Structure formats: structure tokens, C-alpha cells
Amino acid sequence: MQPPTPGSAPALEARLTAFLRRYERANNSHRIDRVLPMIAEDAVYWFTDGSFHGVPEIATAIQRTFDAIQDENYEIRDLEWLVLGAEHAVCRYRFRWTGTVDGRSRSGQGRGTNLIVRRDGEWKILHEHLSA
Fold first, then answer.
1. Which domains does the chain have, with CATH numbers?
2. How are beta strands 70-84 and 50-53 bridged, if at all?
3. Rounded to two decimals, what is the model's pTM?
4. What are the start-end ranges of the H helices in the chain?
5. Average model confidence (pLDDT) for the chain?
């Protein structure tokens, strides 16, 4: 059996999965400067508490979460790739988080969908939709 070529679906899926795992780790670092390079300038994020357009609004929303949930651990599970293309991809997944809110242990879970695009040779998140 031949190994997958760089443009093949298995190789592309592996690269995009690695990108999403880096995004997960960046979020778990709680450092906005690690998360923002992975987001497209014209991105739109839909969270339970609102819609955020562009990196400045998205950064504020993410930082608000980092500030509210201490020691948060965010985990992406059951990742499925619905569309895999050379310039764009779509995935859906389940997520779970645990952390401390106002001194008390808390957790939550929900569903996520991401549209990822290739810009200047790099993958970036163009849209993220998280719902509980």
C-alpha cells in the first residue's frame, strides 16, 4: 500500500485535524495571542451569548471567556470532516469544558461547527458556531 500523497484526502484530513488540535491547545493556553493567528481577519463567530464579527470582536469574546473560567480545559471530541478541499474545509464536533467559575467547579458541553479556509498558504478559521 502506498503512503498518502500530500494532496490526498487522508493527508489533508490529517493536516486539518492537526490544525484543529493546535487551535484546541491554543485555547487551553488561555493566551489570546496564541489563538488569534489561527482566525481569519473577516471571521464570524456565533456563540450562545452572541455573534462576533472580525478579529477585534472575537478576541474580546474569547478573552471574556478566559477571564470568566479559571483553569479551563476545553476539549474537542467526535470530530467529523464534512468537506475537505484544497482551499476550504468544514467540520463538526462535540466539545466539553471544565473549569472554575466564581470559585466553584463548573463544566459544560455542546456542539461546534467550523469553516476553515486557506489564506496565504495557511489554514484559518473563517466561521465558528458553538452551541450548548
1. 9-131 (3.10.450.50)
2. unpaired
3. 0.90
4. 9-29, 32-35, 54-68
5. 94
